[in-house]
Please model this.
Amino acid sequence: MHSSKYQKSLIIIKPDAIQRRLLGEIVHRFERKGLDIIGMKMVELGDILLDEHYAHLKDRSFFQKLKNYMKSAPVVLMVVAGVDAVNAIRLIMGPTKAREADAGTIRGDFAMSTQTNIVHASDSMESAKEEIRRFFSSDELFEKPRHDLAYIYSEEELI
Model:
């Protein structure tokens, strides 16, 4: 049984992370925290998906450069789940402006840029639902019972 705080979030491991061979390190950090990876795939993103995903930035001067960057190499898409997952993931990643990210976060340890900042994650439950639907079909998500939850969460957190 999942608590009402159980959340799912989309993570995109961006082209810079893939090209720099950081995939394993990044995945490891989410798993080490105790989050569940319930979906994962490597894809090349095209214009249609990128136009939809970044629609809120379409009028910005950097929009085409952002799209070109996101198409420059494959990305890894993940759906990660857990109690308060959206906030937990964002703490693990660090702020968007990577130069300002604390050491110990993914961006703090591996990035200097705002654009080439290694990872994207949903910023709210609402965007997580939309982004997961955009990139994953329901048959690509695998939620299985875990037997170690009592070692990750308190009993009250699981109710």
About this structure: The longest strand covers residues 75-83. Residues 23-33 form the longest helix (11 residues). The chain has a mean pLDDT of 94.
